[in-house]
Description:
2 copies of one chain form a homodimer. By secondary structure, the first copy, chain A, is mostly helical. Chain A has a single domain, classed as Farnesyl Diphosphate Synthase (Orthogonal Bundle). Helices cover 68% and strands 1% of the residues of chain A. Chain A contains 13 helices and 2 strands, in the order H-H-H-H-H-E-E-H-H-H-H-H-H-H-H. A two-stranded antiparallel ribbon of chain A has the order 1-2. In chain A, a hairpin with a 2-residue loop joins strand 1 and strand 2. The longest helix of chain A is centred in the middle third of the chain and has 26 residues. The two termini of chain A are 20 Å apart. The model of chain A has no long low-confidence stretch (mean pLDDT 94). Chains A and B meet through helix 3, helix 7, helix 8 and helix 9 of A and helix 3, helix 7, helix 8 and helix 9 of B.
Amino acid sequence: MDARGWLAERIPPVETALVNLLAPCDGVPSRLTGAMAHLLLPGGKRLRPALALAAAEAVGAPSERALPMAVAVELVHSYSLIHDDLPCMDDDDTRRGRPTVHRAFDEATAVLAGDALLTLAFEVLAADAGDGSARLAAVGELARASGAAGLVGGQVDDLAFEAPEADRARIESIHARKSAALITAALVGGGLLGGADREACEALRRCGTALGVAFQIADDLLDADEDDGCSLLRVEGMDEARARSEALLTRALEETRRFGEPAEPLRALACYAVRRSE
Amino acid sequence: MDARGWLAERIPPVETALVNLLAPCDGVPSRLTGAMAHLLLPGGKRLRPALALAAAEAVGAPSERALPMAVAVELVHSYSLIHDDLPCMDDDDTRRGRPTVHRAFDEATAVLAGDALLTLAFEVLAADAGDGSARLAAVGELARASGAAGLVGGQVDDLAFEAPEADRARIESIHARKSAALITAALVGGGLLGGADREACEALRRCGTALGVAFQIADDLLDADEDDGCSLLRVEGMDEARARSEALLTRALEETRRFGEPAEPLRALACYAVRRSE
């Protein structure tokens, strides 16, 4: 199955939803909307939204059922990049070839744009509820993945990361929270909105945990020459890291087997993400 | 009715819940938990939690039904203070007589502690749901109040505020978002968890909007000698501002009349907050 063709069909409604969320609105300063849109609307691969949609299909629902989760995870992803780029954190001037939000606007606006994107993710999940209990469970998934035990905690440990004390367990613990948590939330949340039962959710969770770390290793392999930060390449060679990433991808794919044919797009996306991430 | 006596009974479960949320936890860096607790646990007046609990009582429910909302609004309040204090915003070194979070820790940790507190608010609302649809509606209330059209948007306009262009409408528009939005969310969210119907929620919303602006004016009157920032005292005398605050309080109290006797604590709190806010 061709992941690109599937993406070309499924991602446009996500883009439209994101654009509509940032339409001019009473009481919202246009400078704020501009800063929120700066990174979000040009966007990246939309991997996390795609995974949310594919998870809904895997459990037998039309992908649009997972649209609120797809949008929410992309909002959280965008917020986390804006805050990570801040001068007090990674102090990056550019991202995806453009000035970072604090360079294009200013630092206060970047902090606040991130705050607003994070908040908007939960607003989207709470809007015009279909199944209230599935939506609420998705809120819980997203909050746990994004909070102190997930994304934020991973970033704290990443900032404090010191290469000499690196080992695989420590590095993968950071990857699990900084990368895999949100990817897992995309899958479980997409599944929940698609009507997944508890067992299906747990399979999606195991799939996401393996896929997220595999994806992060693949990402680090592409940036291998940069060689800073927390990467498995600090403690293992390229070949070992590549083998580890493939082994985790295999584990992720195995977890999707129970869903059969409807999980084809999910499997194609997983391979696409790990084997040619950017 | 004595607001202090009511508070002395109703607030301890909120304190206990906040302490438990920040207990040591696998995968959560202790530095992060420390920074999250720094401002939150010593705490302030706990006005917003009290309003959430009082709103539940006003609509005939036991106050503990609103405990998740009480906790959530205090988490959001604490996050907003931490981010407002940052060097790139108000650049405050102390708050409530102690070093601000970025002074006691560092700037990155302060940004991330705020992020984690905001996220935790939604996690709390999503946890062990009683009535899923009321909880989800409370998530929506909190997210709208906290986001680009509420707290965050108000802060953006407050930072850009220039005294020469000040008039009452402009100042109250900032107060409505920076102060009243979260107070309103506390009331409406507390009401929702207490089982309020749509009309009761709308009365609580009107009450919160008036009360929130009255409270902010009263706050500015107490800080009158500081005279910086966005305050009604920029364009009106102390007597006029005091009269405006009282008029808004009266309007807030009127909105609670429909609830009768069970709204006594809410009325007592409203008077307490406006007439002797600190």
